[in-house]
Amino acid sequence: MKTWKHPDLGAFTNDGDSWIREVRLPAFSVFKYRSGGRNAGSSKVEIRFWVDEDGELPTERAAAVAKKVIENQEVLARRLKKSFYDDLNGRGPDSGMGWHGNIQLVRECLEDERDGKKAQSLESPADLDNVLGEPAVWIHESACREYDKPCAVLCFGARFEIEHGVGILTDGTRILGTGFMTDVQPFKRSRMRYG
Do residues 4 and 58 touch, judged by C-beta distance below 8 A? Predict the structure, then answer.
């Protein structure tokens, strides 16, 4: 198995199109949703650098984004909850997602997914702790044509979006967009910064 060792981030293994390592991010242990079992948070988070070709190494610019995510994990955990909650309530930048300003639909999905368990409250950003879970950090060389710089997608399983999950786009400091974890795009250019 191929390995790549970064002096600050440690040793990663290659699976063909990405480099993977599990790290501890205590700030992300608040996200408790688990798709296949008891809801419980964990500080163990996978960091995955996506590359275009088998064996290609991540750039130092991409590694710098990963380091920022690790260093800013506490503020990012707070900001992503506020940003996503505001998106659900139609405040702040528009993600372009069907959930923007449609928190009632999300609440209905939560009701449908409760499997005999107590209904999930969604009255504040803190309530997202039990709606999102299984976090991972995906590092990309660029998000899209509108944001052609290295970035991270904070990926979550979501109780109300089991098929696609939720992705929070960040440069390691700011929240740049929300969407499905495999297709998150920046907020509209004129209002791209959040937090």
Answer: yes
Count of structural domains within the chain:
1
Closest CA to 85 of 139, 171, 160: 160
Reported as a single tens digit per residue, the pLDDT across 157-171 is 998 888 899 999 999
SS3 36: coil
Domain containing residue 96: 3-191
Backbone dihedral angles phi then psi of residue 49, each to the nearest 5 degrees: -95, 115
Report phi then psi at 187, rounded to 5. Answer: -60, 165
Map tokens 């991972």 to a residue.
136
Q: What is the pLDDT of residues 55-96, one digit of tens each?
A: 789 999 999 999 999 999 999 999 999 999 999 999 988 898
Annotate 59-119 with DSSP letters as a single string: PHHHHHHHHHHHHTHHHHHHHHHHHHHHHHTT-SS---STTTT-HHHHHHHHHHT-TTSPP
- Pair 94, 187: CB distance under 8 Å: yes
Give the DSSP letter of residue 150: -
Cα dihedral across residues 163, 55, 154, 39: positive or negative: positive
